[in-house]
Amino acid sequence: MRVTFTVNHQSHTLDLEPRVLLVDVLRDHLHLTGTKIGCDTGQCGACVVLMDGVSVKSCALLGVQADGSSITTIEGVSEKGTMNPLQTAFQAAHAVQCGFCTPGMIMSLTDLLARSAQPSEAEIRAWLAGNLCRCTGYENVVRAVNAALQVAASPAHLVTETPLRKFYDSHLRAMLAGDVDALVDAHYSADAVLTTFEGVISGRDALRTYFRDYLAAHTDLVIAATERFVEFGDSIYTETVVRSAQGVTHAYNAFVVQDGRVTHQFAGVK
Ligand code: FES
Ligand code: FES
Predict the structure, then answer these.
(1) CA of 56 to the centre of ligand 2 (A)
(2) 135 lines ligand 2 (CB under 6 A)
(3) Do 240 and 168 contact (CB within 8 A), yes or no?
(4) What is the pLDDT of residues 98-113, one digit of tens each?
(5) Any residues with CB less than 8 A from the CB of 79 and at least 6 apart, and which?
């Protein structure tokens, strides 16, 4: 039978025997071997892919049933060759051991996170009932999902588990909200000093003027990525990709934070 479907946004037309399973089409015909076969009987979840956005076990479907559909496999979830936040969180939280179940888990969880922005731990565990893992004990998997949720909710795209990360996240939230008073009053000491290549700004009133001018010039401000975040003692060093109406800049900042307020900051762009 002739079937046409897209896989990871690429259209394919194939002549398939009606008995061939979708997982075998993906692996053997299209050479997308990220999708695994653990049991071939619909129990383990290693073969999960998205069909029109819904997680399905590709060993429980025939290839011809994919006709007209849009399939996403693990090869299709990375962003321009870079692991997406869920994949990054799996790596950081050591949620992978042998890795055989991982592609299916990522695909199942991708479906969950598309349905629910803030699933509870019980919902995450219940959702993974169809993904068997013999190695991890699931603890780190749940941790990884929670970390990915935190990253998604953070304007800094960070897991905010330390006081200085929380501080930086809060600083960015106030700035992105355009709330200059909250930004300065809650985050800078009365005699804070901000040094830029243009000059030195000192004190809250001057900082308010500086940030008002900055936000007026950088409308539609977004932190596209935090590429580097380093904490040492009471100091933070960050490198961020900033997008605004002015274009994309790579900004770096060094903060000295004492008693929850910035005393010194150096700001620059690459
Ligand atoms: S290989 Fe499909 S559920 Fe196990
Ligand atoms: S990491 Fe080995 S089966 Fe899950």
Answers:
(1) 19
(2) yes
(3) no
(4) 999 999 999 999 999 9
(5) none
Q: What is the CATH number of the domain that holds 19?
A: 3.10.20.30
Looking at all shown ligands, the one closest to residue 46's CA atom is 1
Nearest-ligand number for the alpha carbon of 132 = 2
Reported confidence tier of residue 270, pLDDT bands at 50, 70, 90: confident
Give the residue from 75, 96, 115 where a domain finishes.
Answer: 75
**Torsion angles phi and psi, residue 264, rounded to 5:** -140, 140
- Residue 251 and residue 219 share a domain: yes
Interval 147-198: pLDDT, tens: 999 888 899 888 888 999 999 999 999 999 999 999 999 999 999 999 999 8
User: Which residue among 57, 102, 133 has the greatest number of ligand 1 atoms within 8 angstroms of its CB, and so is best to mutate?
Assistant: 57
Residue-number span of the structural domain to which 49 is assigned: 2-75
Q: Is residue 158 part of a domain?
A: no
Question: In ligand 2, which atom is closest to the CA atom of 95?
Answer: 1
What CATH number is given to the structural domain containing 175?
Answer: 3.10.450.50
Q: Of 56, 75, 94, which marks where a domain is finished?
A: 75
Assign residue 23 a region (left: φ > 0; alpha: ψ between -120 and 50; beta: otherwise): alpha
CA-nearest residue for atom 3, ligand 2, is 133
Task: Using the predicted structure, report yes or no on whether residue 213 has a pLDDT greater than 90.
Answer: yes
- Long-range pairs for 182-186 at CB < 8 Å and ≥24 separation? 183/211, 184/208, 184/211
**Residue 147 sits in the same domain as residue 243:** no
**If pLDDT is split at 50, 70 and 90, which confidence band does 79 have?**
confident
